[in-house]
């Protein structure tokens, strides 16, 4: 629950909100982004892709189910700051092991409560994601604004080294082992190896600086490119690695940051969306089946397809690349953003959204089956 100490939130354009300190008392900076999920705040907070972002929750009640020992997507909270409207006064859930405010405080996360987060969201939607400062130690918004304007921007941010695992580790397959996957950890979420394990995949999670030889040394049947924070335009080493994987025709699957990396490896560009997609009810069309999936998203950048402006109608045709034909397999029905890529001539596909989604929805879980089928096919041809 919020404590009674005053706090302020100041956006880069000077818009100011007043509230109360929530979590740790202090001051923090980052990129202000909003998440529209009504559930899943623990997964959001512990998702490494939110590193350096101050997350605004549009849902007014946050913290109702407290925190538990099962839902973390990584070993810590990553958000740079947290903005809520009306935090729960007591946590109530059979799995809860503590309260959210206490956990935020324990992990040093500065937050603010009592903010009209829907008004703030509408502002960000009109003006775009921007830098923000939250402080419960500064009372002068102009002084805080000056510091906001000195904080680093998300464009150009290379953050993989800050979130990747220091050492390789293995997540064993459930039951019978079928395949081995080398996962490049650029900010992986725990639920990815878990979804793979359910398909008989043993995942070797490897540091972001791994080389093609490191991937091959674990006996990888396939490669996974993980989600992660930062600007994909900076991810030159993972892009070069993905190109090696494509050249060797090793089956490849990637999610979110991983999709942007495959896009760049194929010769496409990436660009920053106005305010991004963050929530758990985004409609995505799978063009192969014509089905619409309700999906979980967390991305501020997207792949730019050749010859079209961001937001323009996505081409149906197969696009020629250095690695053969590529189709845009998935599109977001809200704004036509590219949500998936599939190579026709090399065994590679990716999605920009999150099929591993915990707290759901699980419509896109089939993509892990597609990956298993792709690996199976690769083994038959080998
Ligand atoms: N979840 C992710 O992988 C995010 C990818 C990238 N940092 C973006 O914001 O678009």
Features of this protein?
382 residues; alpha/beta; Rossmann fold; 11-stranded mixed beta sheet; 7-stranded mixed barrel; 10 helices; binds glutamine
SSE inventory with pairings:
Blueprint: E1 6-11, E2 16-23, E3 27-35, H1 41-45, E4 53-57, E5 61-62, E6 81-83, E7 86-87, H2 100-106, E8 110-113, H3 117-127, E9 130-135, H4 141-148, H5 160-163, E10 169-171, E11 179-184, H6 191-197, E12 201-206, H7 212-217, E13 222-225, H8 236-247, E14 252-255, H9 257-265, E15 269-286, E16 291-304, E17 319-321, E18 324-332, E19 338-343, E20 348-351, H10 366-381
Parallel strand pairs: 3-4, 4-6, 5-7, 6-8, 11-12, 11-13, 13-14, 14-20
Antiparallel strand pairs: 1-2, 1-9, 2-8, 3-9, 10-12, 15-16, 15-18, 17-18, 18-19, 19-20
The structure holds glutamine.
Task: Describe the protein's architecture and organization.
The protein is α/β, with parallel strands linked by helices. It folds into two domains: 6-148, 3-Layer(bba) Sandwich (Glucose Oxidase, domain 1), CATH 3.50.30; 160-381, Rossmann fold, CATH 3.40.50.880. Helices cover 22% and strands 32% of the residues. It has ten helices and 20 strands. Helix 8 crosses helix 9. The longest helix is centred in the C-terminal third of the chain and has 16 residues, at 366-381. The chain is globular and about 65 Å long. Bound molecules: glutamine. Glutamine (GLN) binds at residues 49, 227-230, 232, 256-257, 298-301. The site of glutamine has 12 residues, from strand 16.
